[in-house]
Amino acid sequence: MNMTLGVKKNVVFCVLAFFILVNTWIYIAGEQLVYVWDFHGYWSIWQKYGEMFSHHFFQWLNENEHNIRGNDYNPLPVSLLFPFYVVLGDSRFAYILGLSLVYLGLTSWFLSRLFERLYDDRTAAAFFSLVMAALFVPFWRPTLRGFPDIVGLIPLVGAMLYVMNARFSLRVSLKKSLLLGLLLWTPFLLRRWYAYIVVTLFITLPVLSFWYDRLRMTATEFNEIPLTTRMNRVFIGFLFAGISTVILAYAFQSSLILRILRTNYSYEYSAYQSSFLWSVKYTLNGIGYYILPFAALGLLFALRWPGRKTSLICWFSLANLIISFVMFTRTQSPGIQHQLPFALWIFIIALTGLLNVVFVFQSRIAGAVMSIAIALCAVMLIGALYRGGPSVPDPVEKILPDKNYSLRLDHFENYRALVSVLTTLTGNQEKFAVLSSSGRLSDDLISTLSSGRLDAQMMKISQIDLRDKLRLEPFMAKYMVVADPVELHLSSGQYVVKWPAEALLSAQGIGAAYKKLPYDYVLDGNIHAYIFEKQRGFTDAEIAAFLERFFERYPEWRDYYAHSLQKVFLDSQTQLGDKWGRFDYVDDRALSAHPGENHPTVSHFTWYMDKLIVRSGDLSCKNADGVVVTITGPDSTEQTAKISNGASHAFDMKALIGKRITFTLDKNQNSACDSVAITGD
Predict the structure, then answer these.
(1) What's the CA gap between 497 and 282, in Å, rounded?
(2) Which tens digits make up the pLDDT trace of 334-360?
(3) pLDDT higher than threshold 50 for residue 328
(4) For the residues of 505-551, what is the DSSP string, one character each?
(5) Nearest residue to 658 via CA among 610, 605, 608
(6) Burial class (CB in 10 A: 0-12, 13-18, 19+), 144
(7) With 50 as the cut, is the pLDDT of residue 483 above it?
(8) Is pLDDT at 92 greater than 50 in this prediction?
(9) Using omega within 30 degrees of 0 as the cis cutoff, is the peptide bond preceding 485 cis?
(10) How far apart are CA 551 and CA 536, in angstroms?
(11) What are the two backbone dihedrals, phi and then psi, of residue 464, each rounded to the nearest 5 degrees?
(12) Nearest alpha carbon to residue 410 among 529, 531, 527
């Protein structure tokens, strides 16, 4: 009998694994190479770390450790999927298969173990919940898009299972508390935003622990252990668990923790915020309204039979749903990846309601009901993922989960033509930027379409005002790609894209410095993509008017930009020296430059600080003999300094503050290691 049951389990697991593989293959085969932002970014990180693991294992370890310590979105969830890179290569299919087969598969398996504990017919409950979880649309939607966030559900459900088994109210065990602390730290380790869910669990899990133990207690245990003693033991156990979670987080993620404590995420992510009701509606659209009647059944059964384990799990899940959703939406509205834990809680409540109904019937009828439910969920999944899937009447369509079709764009040939022209225009290493921010057109989309070949020539723009501020260096690019109408992926908070794009389309303000080239590409949604070529540097008046518009909206930006090297760089007009000549923006503290082989690099700009400091810091060339720098004021006065390799010189600029100067960088006798950093003080 046990052998037969074991064979059945193995068959079910093999069938589900095969289904996950086939579903992933068909879905990815239907996509075009049009991935943007996170859809593309996590895939690229997986490729990078898979390659690193294959050839530089210790570097792989060091890079993971470094990023875990300080990166908001560390690569660990995708880095752990290196076996799929090693065996299947770097394809999109291999990456998504790793996410779906391992993370979605393990989530389904842990959920089956949870439901196995709740019902007398353990086998039926386990098999049914396993299949239903593997067919649950909200688990598939972010996973097929390339988000690794479903990985956080595994330790989350694991913590529930552990608490249900550990019996914290009967005895205090430091070992068990430490292990629970590890489980509750893991979702935060894997995805930072799970912090809201972890905090919620520290509120709700002690209650689950106490009452679940109460339901399992024998009469002897109930009589021998006073109520206050049991409550104190649960409190102490979770206190130690909380301390261990905090210690682990700080020990391995100290830089991230410090940044979180100093950052107002609600302010920085305000562009991603919508009303609470909109967040509720968007989340339910993603999960599907069809599930609500079953969730209501689960809660009704919980009211009818309050002393059952299923009822306790329902109230526990409802509490987690409400508390975590309210906490999360105070910072931002949930995306499809953020819906995962909310979908999980609703799934648990709804499946409890459905199973409670199923087990009321005789076993033969129950089997038929479960078969029908599985079939309907399979049809629902196909309809949500594939164009041309089963058609249903509009009223039914509205209660089903949102569609999540394979990524495709109309007029795809025009996208390829745009990439081809940009490749030709930037053939001499000229820079370009894309003033657009949507799935129809963005710099990340161009990067994906060109398979990264244009990345060296592409200057990334800001996307979100409060998160990115205004990057000025893209406006020094020779070419700008602009969508008409302007493409944005948020309803507000993207003026760093909108206003510059409008300026170029109208040829007003800084847009007057550009000329529209004779290219017009009709893209998805019938938007037009134009290419503009910069004809001259911006005037002081154009720069002032451009920045002032942002200062009026974000007054705190004024101090940041008024005297920064970003403004100096934007104001500059430069003639690069031949062969090696360079004048680049590094960050808001430094510019970098290099003289030419036969001609100096000469740049004209307005300076705002007391000192202009030039440092020659490249010591890798033995024959390097330094550079010669000349500062010429508007009255032709000059300051010249020969700066030895590895040395620096500070020019006194007090008399030249606010004046346009000429910066000339020339080699000495040779141009070896003549790169310099330019800073101010």
Answers:
(1) 25
(2) 999 999 999 999 999 999 999 988 887
(3) yes
(4) HHT-GGGGGEEEEEEEEE-GGG-EEEEEEE-SPPPHHHHHHHHHHHH
(5) 608
(6) buried
(7) yes
(8) yes
(9) yes
(10) 25
(11) -125, 130
(12) 527
Q: For the stretch 359-382, what's the b/e string if a residue is b when 16 or more beta carbons lie within 10 angstroms of its beta carbon?
A: beeeeeebeebbeebbeebeebbb
| 246/182 Cα distance (integer angstroms) | 10
Give me the pLDDT at residue 1, please: 42
Please state, in angstroms and rounded to a whole number, the distance separating the CA atoms of residues 653 and 35. 48
CA 380 to chain CA centroid, Å, is: 27
**What pLDDT sits at residue 518?**
95
Dist CA 283 CA 335 (whole Å) = 8
CA distances from 659 to 178, 271, 580, 638 (A): 63, 38, 28, 14
Can you tell me the mean pLDDT for 212-240?
88
CB of 600 closer than 8 Å to CB of 577: yes
In the structure encoding, which two tokens stand for residue 81, read together? 């999927």
What CA–CA distance (Å, rounded) separates 83 from 80? 8
- Across 113-138, average pLDDT: 92
Lowest mean pLDDT among 20-29, 293-302, 365-374, 459-468: 365-374
| Distance between start and end Cα atoms, the chain | 81
pTM for the whole thing? 0.83
Q: Is the pLDDT of residue 223 over 80?
A: no
Residue 412 dihedral angles phi and psi, to the nearest 5°: -60, -30
- Give residue for tokens 């010249």: 640
Quickly list H helices, 359-464: 363-385, 394-397, 412-425, 443-449
Per DSSP, 386 falls in state S
**How far apart, in whole angstroms, are the C-alpha atoms of residue 288 and residue 172?**
42
The yes-or-no verdict on residue 543 having pLDDT over 90 is: no
Return the structure tokens found at 224. Answer: 């021998």
Contact in structure between 333 and 282 (CB atoms under 8 Å): yes
Paired tokens of 568: 């100096």
Helices (H), 30-104: 38-55, 57-70, 76-79, 82-88, 92-98
Report how far residue 411's alpha carbon sits from residue 54's, in angstroms, rounded to the nearest whole number. Answer: 38
Closest CA to 466 of 268, 655, 664: 268
Nearest-angstrom CA–CA distance, 256 and 67:
9
CA–CA distance, 640 with 130 (Å, rounded to integer): 76
Question: Looking at the DSSP assignment, which residues form a beta bridge with residue 433?
Answer: 480
- How do residues 308-326 score in pLDDT, each as one tens digit? 999 999 999 999 999 999 9
Rounded Cα distance between 392 and 410, Å, is 25
DSSP 3-state of 151: helix
Q: Give residues with Cβ within 8 angstroms of 579, minimum separation 6.
A: 596, 597, 598
Predicted local confidence at residue 224, as pLDDT: 82
Indicate the SS3 state at residue 435: strand
Q: Report the pLDDT value the prediction gives residue 484, as an integer from 0 to 100.
A: 95
Q: Which helix (H) or strand (E) holds 642?
A: strand 638-643
Tokens read off for 383: 């309809």
Q: What is the pLDDT of residue 5?
A: 58
**609: closest CA among 588, 635, 637, 579?**
588
How large is the C-alpha radius of gyration of the chain? 30
Question: CB of 352 within 8 A of CB of 118?
Answer: yes
Q: Please tell me the distance from the alpha carbon of residue 341 to that of residue 156, in angstroms, as a whole number.
A: 9
To the nearest whole percent, how much of the chain has pLDDT over 90? 64
| DSSP letter for each residue of 332-370 | ----TTTHHHHHHHHHHHHHHHHHHHHTTS-HHHHHHHH
Please state the separation of Cα 572 from the chain's center in Å: 35
Burial class (CB in 10 A: 0-12, 13-18, 19+), 290: middle
Q: Which of 632, 648, 662 is nearest to 640 (CA)?
A: 632
**What is the longest distance spanned by two Cα atoms in the chain?**
99
